[in-house]
Design a protein that fits this description.
Radius of gyration: 17 Å
Distance between the termini: 21 Å
Low-confidence stretches: none
Structural class: alpha+beta
Oligomer: single chain
Strand content: 5-15%
Largest sheet: 4 strands, mixed
Number of strands: 4
Order of helices and strands: EHEHEEHHHHHHHH
Helix content: 40-55%
Mean pLDDT: 93
Shape: globular
Amino acid sequence: MSQSPFALYVDAQFISPYAMSAFVALTEKQLPFTLHTVDLTLQHNHLPQYAQCSQTRRVPTLGDGDFHLSESSAIAEYLEERFPAPGYTALYPAVLQHKAKAREIQAWLRSDLMPIRQERPTEVVFFGEKRAPLSSAGQFAANKLIAAADIWLSEGAEYLFGTWSIADLDLAVMLNRLALHGDALPSKLSDYAARQWQRPSTQQWLALQQAAAG
């Protein structure tokens, strides 16, 4: 990639949904950046040199010169404020209430629905692994996700808020934990998630993941 003050640290397997979100945010903004991988299976995120970049020792981490920032939603908000539309692709809706709702959705997907993340980890999404049927807790979380997404998305809606936002990617990842495993999901939601998967910035990440998988 081109020389740039931006550096993005992601997991070496390219299966972190949060690293994916930060990668897509930078790619959508068309900001050149260098990509660095951190092997989480070997706990390289706990090495002293990485701890200097990320005090939380998590991926993703964005490097902007001497400034470093972790947490994908914080990275997206930082990039949006530093490189706003119309000069750059918007990561969030322009309407204030829609922007707030997008952030609500992002926060909810990261803080709730733990049974889905545990029973349908990203190995399901990226490697096609098959797991046991959802537990009662997993099905309860899936029903909660489906009910919320059904309200947010009208029939045939391409995006949550009329135009693409980073919340569309994050919601699609959670829905695809179910859809790509073959769990029951209304076609409206599985079709929406599949459309998000075809976005060029998302396809770039998927190509990196497939290359890493060999």
